Amino acid sequence: MGTCICPIDAQFFDQVAALLTPPTLPQIQEYFEVLEAKRHCSGLKVKPDAKHGKGVHSEVNFQEDDLILKDEMLVGAQHSSNKIDCFVCSFCFRFIGSIELQIGRKLYLQELGVSAVDGSGSSDGIGCNTSSEKTRIPQDTIQSLMNSNLQLPYSENFPLPLVVPCLGGCKEAYYCSKSCAEADWDSFHSLLCIGHGSSSPSTEALLKFVKHANETNDIFILAAKVISFTILRYRKLKAAHVQREGKHDSSNQFDSCIFPLLLEAWKSVSMGFKRRWWDCIALPEDVDSSEKVEFRMQIKDLAFESLQLLKEAIYDKECAPLFSLDIYGHIIGMFELNNLDLVVASPVEDYFLYIDDLPVSQKKEVENLTKPFLDALGDDYSISCQGTAFFPLQSCMNHSCIPNAKAFKREEDKDGQATIVALRPIFKGEEVTISYIDEDLPYDERQELLADYGFRCKCPRCIEEQL
Ligand SMILES: C[S@@+](CC[C@H](N)C(=O)[O-])C[C@H]1O[C@@H](n2cnc3c(N)ncnc32)[C@H](O)[C@@H]1O
């Protein structure tokens, strides 16, 4: 137990330490100024302070319900189990295809016996059958839904983007547009694709890595995206460098040429607040506190196992320090401390609610056509796209048990971006805070949950309640 020794940690000790050194104040300021301008959020400023590290401060007055920030993810992934329920763009997580394709694909997978394990869809009383008494739809009808031969009434009111396949020819990633397909390919997917166009040295090893992640913890897939992103960015920076400076002998140039480029490629990841995964992971309820040390060792072993599989799949010797266990642990720990749930509401739910709201005169006839599908989907007809993502600006927001902002998806938010809205008026100069936990819990339970983030909350409410 806990015997894993990562040779890369020892061999590249100095480089790993440099990659994990928190950025300096000027580096933070420079990076976030560029990001704030890109997000068009002139109302916000990331500022470091002595108490809580970085925080987000308001530069203007916001009213209650105002949109404060729409943040694009640095990296995000749909939960593996959710892929059965929701067919979404692998880059922006928008639903794709058509209402018919969404329904047909799900019924098809249901018929194959593939089912989601953590569906959290809810039946809100629009009259579908429960899962135990699902209606069965004939195979040819399901096929007609999937190949657009069958159109459901009023589905034209819920148009979805056409499906764009992966540039590398895998049957895993699909997109809402060519630009999303290209952006994903350039940023992450060219190295993680299992299709014929992949630049992974071994797609067989990739398959093993993904299988292990699906069977253990799909957070490893997100960590692989961060490593892939950094390698691909490093290669671009190197190509530009070579073009500028001429070709170098890259036999052993970690310090002079290669490593500064790797540090630059890693910059956006270096800005995220981090601790090692096995040091900060919350103890599951079924693990006794006396088994804490052993549990943390097991987590470390698991991460090492996953990293070895990833290394076989995408190793690049010029980026060797990225394959250290310490780096892998810190990347996953960064997700643990910063990530936001990725949620995109299902257009299939909107569709059936629309049918349910039709005037009585029309509804009966339409429902004769749509009800069998609703019954076949059962309780799960409304499952949203679910995953997890790291957002560079949102992740700088500190916690308060009386937050002035929250992550909230509005009706118009159809993709995976983070949407932060004001819960009450926020004044110029105030810090923007969100709650990391259910703030309705009693004081002790809140502090217990926040201990997993490594701090005790001293917000005005906590100070008052601890007395
Ligand atoms: C999502 S990050 C927030 C940004 C972070 N302050 C930074 O420097 O990047 C979460 C971490 O910030 C710190 N933090 C957030 N809210 C805090 C609070 N109310 N009191 C103390 N530390 C806090 C904790 O270390 C926590 O694990």
TrEMBL record:
Keyword Zinc-finger: yes
Domain SET: 42-437
PROSITE patterns xrefs: SET (PS50280)
InterPro entries documented for this protein: ATXR2-like, SET_dom, SET_dom_sf, Znf_MYND
Transmembrane as UniProt keyword: no
Protein name (record): Histone-lysine N-methyltransferase ATXR2 isoform X1
Superkingdom to which the source organism belongs: Eukaryota
Keywords on record: Metal-binding, Zinc, Zinc-finger
GO molecular function per UniProt: methyltransferase activity; zinc ion binding
Pfam families: SET, zf-MYND
Sequence intervals crossing the membrane: none
